[in-house]
Amino acid sequence: MESKRQVCLRVWGFQWFMESTQSMATTMSTKQQYSHTMLGLELPGKQDPELVKRIGAATALEVRATGIQYAFAPCIAVCRDPRWGRCYESYSEEPKIVQEMTELIPGLQGDIPPNVSKGVPYVAGKDKVIACAKHFVGDGGTQKGINENNTIVDWKSLLSLHMPAYYNSIIKGVSTVMVSYSSWNGVKMHANRNLITGLLKNKLRFRGFVISDWQGIDRITSPPGANYSYSVQAGVNAGIDMIMVPYNYTEFIGDLTNLVEKNIVPMSRIDDAVRRILRVKFVMGLFEDPMADLSFADQLGKKEHRELAREAVRKSLVLLKNGKSSNEPLLPLPKKAPKILVAGSHADNLGFQCGGWTIEWNGDSGDITAGTTILDAIKSTVDPRNQSGLL
C-alpha cells in the first residue's frame, strides 16, 4: 500500500501531446472518425475570431476524448514568403490577422478570468486542454522561405511582424510556447537566451513553460547532434523548460546530469523549469485527476463538430474571379454541362485533400476518415446523364 504522503507527492506526466494545427487532426488510428477542419491559412478567409474560438472548443473536446491533455496549437507564424512549405499552418502574412486568430487559445483552454494575472497559464476544466503558441519566433520569415532557415530582420521588425500574436497569446493565458527550428540573424532560436529568457520570460512575464520542437536542440549544431552535450547546455540555459527527446533520452539525461553536477547548467535553471512545468500541471488539474475521462468518448466525430467544420469551410471560401465577366460567370456550374474537367489524382483522394497534419505530419493517402472527394461531390451535383462527360 502506498502511503498518503507518497500519493500526494506523485508527479503525474502529461498523457502525450497532439498536433492540433488542423483541429483534431492527428489521431492514433487511421480509421478513427474524428472531426476535421481546415488548417490555419484557410481559416481567416472570413476573419471570424468567434468561429476560430468555437473550433478550439470542439478541438479540445475531441482531444480530451482520446485521453490527451496537450494540443500543439495554435501556430501563430506570420508567413512572409509563400515559398515556405509550412505556410499552410500560418493564419496570414498580416500580423493583425494572426493576432485575431489567437482566439483559438480561449477555445482550447477556456476564457481567462479577469482576476488572473497576465502571463499566468490558465486551463478552465476537464473539457479543456493545454494550448501551445508556436514557433517562437520568426519561423515564417526565413530567407527565401526555406524551412528552418535564417530570419534576417532587425529588432524593430521582429517585434512588429513576428511578435504581436505572442503578446495576445500571453494575455489570453496560453500555457506553453514552442521554440522554432529557425534562427534569428544567425542565432539558433533553440539557443537564443536573449529572446527566450530575456524577452519572453522576463520582459513579457510569461509564466507557463517553454518547450523545444521535436529534436529541436539537436539542430543547434551543424550537422544536427554533432556536439550533443553542447546542445543540451545551450538549449536548457537558453530557457527551454521541456525538451522533446524522442530517441536518445538516455544520452540526454546523462549529459544534463553531468552539466548540472559541474554547475555548467545551474540548479536555479532546473528549479525554474520544474516550477513552470508543475505550475501548468496544477492549473490543468493533473494532480487532482490525472486519468483520461471516458465520458468524453462520444465527442469524437460528433455531428455538431462536423457541422462546425462545414461552416468553417463555407466561410473560408474566397472566390477571386468568376469567369471572363459578370455576364459570363463560370460558377455555379451548370448541371447540364456537356463536359467538366476534373484534373489531378488528388481530386479523388480524400487523404490528400485533408492535407498535412492529418493522421501524421505529411498527411496520408486514401480514405483516412469519413468524407467526400471533390470528384464525388461534382458527380452528385451534375445531371447523372452527363457524368460520362467528366474527364
From TrEMBL:
InterPro entries: Cellulose_Degrad_GH3 (IPR051915), GH (IPR017853), Glyco_hydro_3_AS (IPR019800), Glyco_hydro_3_C_sf (IPR036881), Glyco_hydro_3_N (IPR001764), Glyco_hydro_3_N_sf (IPR036962)
Glycoside hydrolase family 3 N-terminal domain: residues covered: 45-280
EC number(s) given by UniProt: 3.2.1.21
Catalysed reactions listed for this entry: Hydrolysis of terminal, non-reducing beta-D-glucosyl residues with release of beta-D-glucose
Keywords: Glycosidase, Hydrolase, Signal
Keyword Membrane (UniProt): no
GO biological process: glucan catabolic process
MF annotations from Gene Ontology: beta-glucosidase activity
Family: Belongs to the glycosyl hydrolase 3 family.
Protein name: beta-glucosidase
Taxonomic source organism: Iris pallida
